[in-house]
Give the backbone structure.
Amino acid sequence: MADEPLELGEISFSDWHAHTDKMVEVGFLTIARRLPSLVAQAMGMAWRASPRDTVATVALNLLGGVFTAFGLLATTGVLNALFSEGPTPDRVVAALPSLALVAVAAALRTGVQAGAGWAQSRLDPQVSRLTEERLYGLTSQVDLVSYDDPEFHDALQRARLRGVAMADSVVTSAINVVTAAVGIAAVAGVLGVLHPVLLPLLLLAVLPDAWAAVRSARMRYATLYALIPANRRKWIIGELLADRRPAAEVRSFTMRGFLLRMYDAVAKAEQDVLLGLAKRQTLARLVGEALGGLGSALVYVALGVLLAAGAIALAVAGTAVLAIRSAQQSLANLMYATNRLYEEGLYFTDFLEFCADAERRLAGPRPAAMPETFERIAADDVTFSYPGAGSPALRGVSVEIKQGEVIAFVGENGSGKTTLAKILSGLYEPDSGHVTWDDVDLRDVPPDDLRRRTAVIAQDHTRWPLTARYNITMGTDKGQEALDAAAAVAGADEVVAELPHGYRTLLDRRFKDGHELSGGQWQRIAVARGFHRDAALLICDEPTAALDARAEHALFERIRSHADGRTVLLITHRLASVRYADRIYVLDHGKITEQGDHEALMALNGLYADLYTLQAAAYR
């Protein structure tokens, strides 16, 4: 079995570079054109995070450039005095005023740069907080169907793993670009005064490095972009190997060797791609550095020729040397910052594009008022398909729920029961057809207003790493009496009574003093959560899946008594539990094939009668 080929699904190695052509045509000119937009986006983010710190950072960096230029010009005065004729003491004395100006300029530049650094360091955590709040504010608000879209998942992963993390780095790199550009402008002004021919020669020294940096960034981004599915698969397999929940089955089914083989197959292929990336980046840097050295040599040769020809004075030549070194350092900083900004900006753009896509997925203004309660809920000719699905999950479904009724959805797995319940509760919107509460179309009401009037007890409920109290109240505390009542109806009061700190017990063993519940205990907590909401419509989707027979019987008895005057939608495979429902809808492959009460459906002798008889026979 060790040599058995592994099926890796979407991580087939030939598809790893499916997205690389996105970056193939990106060159230096593209980056140059995109740079102002990246700087503007980053500075806009910084401004929203803290206008005061943004202004302080930019203003102080501008002052630093002014003091740099002032210091270089003052240096010319020092050299003129030192290279003039006369006794050495006299020349030193003559240079002192200019030397004092150089010292003052250096001190002021150091001071403003320190202030700029302090303001910039204050920006980083504020930008991080702003971007994280924006991301999670959108991910928690988009329609639920978005999470069934693989493209949304990929975009979300890029935004979470790199986009948010790069936000503060993008702002820092943008400020560094501005700072380096200011320094270059200051030095360029001085060099232009000394001799105009020095400027184009100076560009020859740094453009090769710029090309190498841009090419390296492009290679890295294209490779990491293509490896996103592999990284996701590695993370999933790593969770299976290291997480508490699958740990028992990993050992019971001796899955360790198989999972490690799968992990190693993905990791080995990823490693080969990254090693190839390192080789290509190294070659690009070597070419860039070689061409950069040649350009620097040309600059100093040209300076020597100008000096020999008498085109510039010795003092000016000395200042030019200092200016060129300063300009080279500023240009090197600019290239490094530009490289970082471009590479980080690609990931940051992923974040911005995800946010833009998520905002397009948000529901628009819905002015209609949501009724506090209803006389009738109706779904009329509803059709719904999941993203990328080959066939609809629901096809022309119509149901009716009257106030105070107990309605049941039954059918085999994949028949559409849970999907229809999610549409009725506003979690999904139908592709066609309408869902109304009385005469109000749910497309016209704010989604949260609808969800506050529904409660869902789901089979795949979340085990929140919160206290027992918050697991039931979900932050909407209605007082101890309401909490106790909901827990008693669900049987969760017995669970809480056994906890070491009662309702204050943290239900997650990964934390200190945390406590873990069994599946059945968690189910009771989830049921109490639904009852505590006390909503107009209670949806119970397989609420007894993790309960034993005695607890299941007791829970259904509680649901029936709790449903007195309330509206309950029950989804279950345990057909003995739905025989007292006012109306039963039978779904098969996304369609309603039968409806009526238990006696009517048994008399019909269709799918419901067949399933009920099969289950009943199992107990004889």
Notes: The CA atoms of residues 422 and 428 lie 6 Å apart. Strands lie at 376-384, 394-402, 406-411, 432-437, 440-441, 454-457, 537-541, 567-571, 583-588, 591-596.
